[in-house]
Amino acid sequence: xxxxxxxxxxxxxxxxxxxxxLKPVYTEFQNEPNFKILSYTCDPSTDxxxxxxxxxxxxxxxxxxxxxLLTGNKDSLYAMARHSYMIDDPKNEVEKGETDxxxxxxxxxxxxxxxxxxxxxxxxxxEIEQMQAEIKKLLKENI
Length: 143
Fold this sequence. Notes:
It is a single chain. The chain is an alpha/beta fold. It has one domain: Glutaredoxin. The protein contains 4 helices and 5 strands. It has a 5-stranded mixed sheet with strand order 3-2-1-4-5, with helices on both faces.
């Protein structure tokens, strides 16, 4: 089971707040072998593997095997966010190509079957707490 987010390393607004709100989730479940956090970049042209490693080590100060920062092809990343995780409004896809930019505070909770269980607003502490409770429940039920 995992939670999935999208962020970019040069963001100065939503992303730092989102990642800061995820820190308690990371801390609570960092020793749980059946849970991870996956954070995908929405700016793969800037966020290289090396830059993501630096960000994990220097900014987030996390174990990158438990909170994994990922990059890839922009089209694939955006399609995943919009159609697999459903954490961006599809109407944002109107602008194609270089002007298309995904910027969301939404978090997808994904069960061990790969199904999105629920979407949470990562800027709302009450929703982070609800997500933590749901993670505990799913881990206990082994779902």
